[in-house]
Amino acid sequence: MTARRRLVYAARAALLMAGGAWCCNLYEGRTLELFNDQVDSGTECRDERDCSRERGYCARGTCVECLVDGDCDRGKPACVGNVCVECRSASDCASGQGCNDVLSVCALACDTESGCVGQPASRCSSELDVCVECLSDDDCREPREPACDRGGVCAECTDDFYCPTDRPSCKLATRTCVECVESSQCGDGRVCDARDARCVECTSDADCAAGTCDVERRRCRLPCAGPQDCQSRKPICDASGLCVECAPDRPCTDPKRPACTPERQCVECQSDEHCTEPGRRACIIATQRCGECTRNEHCGADQRCDLVAARCVPAPLEPAPGPMPEPPAMNADAGIAPMPGPMPAPPAP
């Protein structure tokens, strides 16, 4: 944690205790370090150490891009809604520009329509005092973006009215037409898959009247009674009624994928003992593939393992040890080493 952040924490803590207003937005989530009992165990983060570089701050249990303006860079200097944006006001924009405070972007300032002519944002918004792309749907000429959204920008949709029959729902978060945004919009007992906003048979076992959900394919599958109910890719019917690739008593038969995982899938390796080819004797657990090395012991005497590439690379040369320099003689009276001086002349013969 940087010194600047520690100072911010301390300042905000003092304000909260002095004003008795810790519930307000002054701390914007950084009080998670002061009031850890406020954090639910199911939250994304408890402090910044749980967050990625792109969303490096913890606010109310969620990793966000920023907490204060100082967390943003020059290109997007203002923190609005925990996101770094171009502007909060005209002072964040260049001369002659204003801030479109709906979109939080800088745009050419205007007070008459003529001030916007000759550019894509050719309409002057009297509400925002900046040039915008549209004031009404009539200004949106592109067939794929027929709707004029807030902030004066053309979008695919702002409600279901703009969407075609094969994608009848407007996903407001992205202003795009999709097959569904909730399961009630799907027929035939199907559910809406939030990942890609389409109707599928299932996303969990609870969606299937019988059997289990194949989460990868988003389809319900009935329990198998024997190998006759399974396909060649997963020929074994295990005790739970699932078709699998292998089992403890039925090892993998593909020599290129000899290892059976706890999920009953055949992979290239689960440990180094599955890797026997020269130059590929290390099992990279993250990918379940054989590679050149995962530690220095897999490499030659003059090599080391590059853990990022999982390859052996030349080891850096260490400087050869040399003789230690003699310490300078100490002056017993002063306790310091004597200063070097000219050598005394030899006595006359």
In brief, what are we looking at here?
The chain is mostly beta strands and 349 residues long. It is 5% helix and 21% strand. The longest helix is centred in the N-terminal third of the chain and has 17 residues.
Secondary structure elements and their pairing?
Layout: H1 3-19, E1 57-59, E2 62-64, E3 78-80, E4 83-85, E5 97-100, E6 105-108, E7 123-125, E8 130-132, E9 147-149, E10 153-155, E11 169-171, E12 176-178, E13 191-193, E14 198-200, E15 212-214, E16 219-221, E17 236-237, E18 243-244, E19 259-260, E20 266-267, E21 282-284, E22 289-291, E23 303-306, E24 311-314
Antiparallel strand pairs: 1-2, 3-4, 5-6, 7-8, 9-10, 11-12, 13-14, 15-16, 17-18, 19-20, 21-22, 23-24
Description:
- The protein is mostly beta strands and 349 residues long.
- Among the domains are: 3-85, no CATH class; 94-161, no CATH class; 272-314, no CATH class.
- 5% of the residues lie in helices and 21% in strands.
- It has one helix at residues 3-19; strands at residues 57-59, 62-64, 78-80, 83-85, 97-100, 105-108, 123-125, 130-132, 147-149, 153-155, 169-171, 176-178, 191-193, 198-200, 212-214, 219-221, 236-237, 243-244, 259-260, 266-267, 282-284, 289-291, 303-306, 311-314.
- It has a two-stranded antiparallel ribbon with strand order 1-2. Strands 3-4 form a two-stranded antiparallel sheet. Strands 5-6 form a two-stranded antiparallel ribbon.
- A hairpin with a 5-residue loop joins β19 (259-260) and β20 (266-267).
- The radius of gyration is 34 Å and the shape is flat.
- The chain starts with a helix and ends in a 35-residue tail after the last strand.
